[in-house]
Amino acid sequence: MTRHAPAIHRLAALNVGPGAADDVVQDVFIAVYRGLPGFRGEAQFSTWLHRVTLNACYRALGARQNLSLGDMPEPAAPHDPVGAGERADLRSRLAQALQTLPRDQREAVSLRELSGLEYAEIAEITGAGLGTVKSRINRGRAALREWLTRAGVGP
Prior knowledge:
single chain; 71% helix
């Protein structure tokens, strides 16, 4: 739990917002505890854990409709009010942009960029082919880039 909780929380926060992420993480670890005897080991544990997390996120999203990912907490950093405000604004815009992506693209992009998973792992988690995963990530990144550019966010 200690090893996987931070990554699971980041993935949950991206998908359901920081306010609901703690509840999702709790649901994930309860589901993992209950499902562990049935885990056959045909996939890596981390692959199974990410799928359980995404399923818990979708259940939470089904229960709540008005979610905002822009309230993500600031990482610990030296006191810099201007920089903190700029990072909060960027995080809010990125959260808005992510919500515009279709579910399959948002899932693939978040697993790649936030969880740092390899394409093959994402394919296993999502049940999509490797080429499909690469395409979803490419289209998702392009859509994010376009949305953020229109919103005035530059590199």
